[in-house]
Design goal:
Shape: globular
CATH topology of the largest domain: Four Helix Bundle (Hemerythrin (Met), subunit A)
Structural class: mainly alpha
CATH superfamily of the largest domain: NADH-ubiquinone/plastoquinone oxidoreductase chain 6, subunit NuoJ
Oligomer: single chain
Helix content: over 70%
Number of domains: 2
CATH architecture of the largest domain: Up-down Bundle
Strand content: under 5%
Distance between the termini: 57 Å
Length: 166
């Protein structure tokens, strides 16, 4: 049953990610991103990381996506205007994508041969205590750097929106 659920939610994640890239309106892209994040939370649950799944839903699918929606609304971003596609992209796009997928599959298969099979629910490192210890000791600097980068991005969006109003 775990394998079936994994396949279903992995497919939902991939389809939502493709939809995210192909959407022309930013709000529709943000909703597709919520689909990706929700399916990733279910995948975390299948692996036995309940706390990470909950944090994924509350922090990313909830708070961060509300922030993205506010920034999109603040910038008053409309639909993306279609530009003329280059002839090279139309001819070589799909074959190059297939070649890239084959090469990445080969690299992954060769580089990760000694990995063991995933056993659903066997991981025990996803508790709040374990994540808190790692986050505020070993990964404190990256955590703070990411928070500052997000703050700078929000301020940049406000400055860009204010210039448009003037």
């Amino acid at each position: 049953m775990d394998t079936v659920l994994f396949i279903i939610f992995a497919t939902i994640a991939v389809v939502s990610a493709v939809s995210l890239v192909l959407q022309k309106h930013p709000i529709a892209s943000a909703l597709s991103l919520i689909g990706v994040m929700g399916s990733l939370a279910v995948l975390y649950l299948l692996l036995g990381a309940e706390f990470i799944a909950m944090a994924q839903m509350f922090v990313y699918a909830g708070a961060v996506m509300v922030l993205f929606i506010f920034v999109i609304m603040l910038l008053n971003a409309g639909s993306e205007k279609s530009s003329g596609k280059s002839w090279f992209a139309q001819i070589a796009g799909l074959p190059l994508l297939i070649v890239f997928a084959v090469v990445m599959g080969f690299v992954i298969k060769r580089g990760f041969t000694d990995l063991r099979v995933v056993e659903f629910g066997s991981w025990v490192g996803g508790t709040a205590e374990h994540i808190g210890q790692l986050l505020f000791t070993r990964y404190l600097l990256p955590f703070e750097v990411v928070s500052i980068l997000i703050l700078i991005a929000i301020l940049g969006a406000v400055v860009l929106a204010r210039k448009e109003i003037d």
